[in-house]
Specification:
7-stranded mixed β-sheet; 405 residues; binds pyridoxal-5'-phosphate; globular; alpha/beta; 12 strands; 3-stranded antiparallel β-sheet
């Protein structure tokens, strides 16, 4: 394969990295395909299938001939369903014209940031963060500002830390809860405290990524910031999607509610990129949002049991401290006590990347290192896999930790 001519790739592309979580999942898949006994705890998607009624809606849409371009912003039926969802589940009033549909939640973040960031603009991205935020900010020409949260605070951004991170150049606060990678979710009071800071800085907008809203446990109640602090509604993008709640990661539908002028700006951008999300997936999403919701508590129960299992077993591993998060399907254990130890292979574990590399090599367990999410020394475990595999993976992690010297 011949190399590309020097300077051929754009400067924007050179500012970013390939997604480390996608890379970790691919590496695990490659090793499995090559015959290695690997358990992947690196996946970012539910392990169950899309519910049958949603699949049927897609098939019916194909049969009806809903196979053409749609409006850039999304089909009116889906925009109406999104507006109803925001009202029903979040108490938020968005008219259909204030909603927008993109090919995946990631594309909503991409459109919102590309449509608004200029060189020098800052976006606050609390660490640890979902890997794509800083890189999308960089791609859009902005500067990510990444205040670190603390395990003692349940990895939640404190009001004082937010106040310190805001400058005259701040354009966005990107808030994600339940959080990927920590599972942390904010209480109403914690959101109010952040809101009080934001009210003092009217130039700062909020992009809230509520993708894991329905994956929440032990009766914890989910709140979104524009509902808790209504004065922020005029400068908030409330982002969500069907990927995680409805096990529809491959269908590629994300959506948001936002002030109409911003929706128009995002629409202008999408009209020159993806045009519209898949017509068939949009019809499937109408069914997801308006059809029966009874499988959501069933999935919640399964995930809650797995979370409890993983937290308990990881806390029994020597040198690991694993907090119990409120939601999503991730835990983010600390390996501070293990840094500097030596693996049976003779390799010293200087970083969390060394830890996950050695864990994969010696025990065949794939996880993602904390540095990928901007906070070390930790690693992310996804428990979106069967209980049997989780038990086996945690036993292997316990054995690996016990063998470190
Ligand atoms: C926090 C968060 N937001 C957004 C997304 C992207 O969702 P989608 O697959 O709909 O693009 C993910 C996927 O991993 C995520 O973890």
């Amino acid at each position: 394969m011949s190399a590309l001519p020097k300077g051929f790739l754009s400067e924007a592309l050179n500012r970013i990295q390939p997604s480390p979580t996608i890379a970790a999942s691919q590496k695990a898949r490659d090793l499995i395909a090559a015959g290695r006994n690997v358990i992947s705890l690196s996946v970012g998607e539910p392990d169950h299938d899309t519910p049958e009624n949603i699949k049927e809606a897609a098939i019916a849409a194909i049969r009806r001939g809903e196979t053409k371009y749609t409006a850039v912003e999304g089909i009116p039926e889906l925009r109406k369903a999104i507006a109803l969802k925001f009202k029903r589940e979040n108490g938020l009033d968005y008219a259909p014209a204030q909603t927008f549909v993109s090919p995946g939640g990631k594309a909503i973040v991409f459109n919102a940031l590309m449509a608004t960031l200029n060189p020098g603009d800052e976006a606050i991205v609390p660490a640890p963060y979902w890997v794509s935020y800083p890189d999308i900010v960089l791609l859009a020409g902005g500067t990510p500002v990444m205040p670190k949260t603390r395990i003692e605070d349940g990895f939640k951004l404190r009001a004082e830390a937010l106040a310190r991170a805001i400058t005259p150049k701040t354009k966005w606060l990107i808030l994600n809860q339940p959080c990927n990678p920590t599972g942390a979710c904010y209480t109403e009071d914690e959101l109010k405290a952040l809101g009080e800071v934001l009210l003092k800085h009217p130039h700062v907008w909020v992009l809230t990524d509520d993708m894991y809203e329905h994956l929440i446990y032990e009766g914890f109640r989910f709140h979104t910031i524009a509902a808790v602090v209504p004065q922020l509604y005029e400068r908030t993008v409330t982002m969500n999607g069907v990927s995680k709640a409805y096990a529809m990661t491959g269908w590629r539908i994300g959506y948001c509610g936002a002030p109409e002028p911003l929706i128009k700006a995002m629409s202008k951008l999408q009209s020159q990129s993806a045009s519209n999300a898949s017509s068939i997936s949009q019809w499937a999403s109408v069914e997801a949002l308006t059809g029966p919701q009874d499988f959501i508590p069933k999935f919640q129960k399964i995930f809650e049991e797995r979370r409890d299992l993983v937290v308990s077993m990881l806390n029994q591993a020597k040198g690991i401290e694993c907090p119990k998060p409120e939601g999503a399907f991730y835990v983010y254990p600390s390996i501070a006590e293990l840094i500097g130890k030596t693996a049976p292979s003779g390799k010293t574990l200087a970083t969390d990347e060394d830890f996950v590399t050695e864990l994969l090599e010696s025990e065949g367990v794939a996880a993602v290192h904390g540095a990928a999410f901007g906070l070390s020394p930790f690693f992310r475990v996804s428990y979106a896999t069967s209980t049997e595999l989780l038990e086996e993976a945690c036993r292997r992690i316990q054995r690996f930790c016990a063998e470190l010297r």
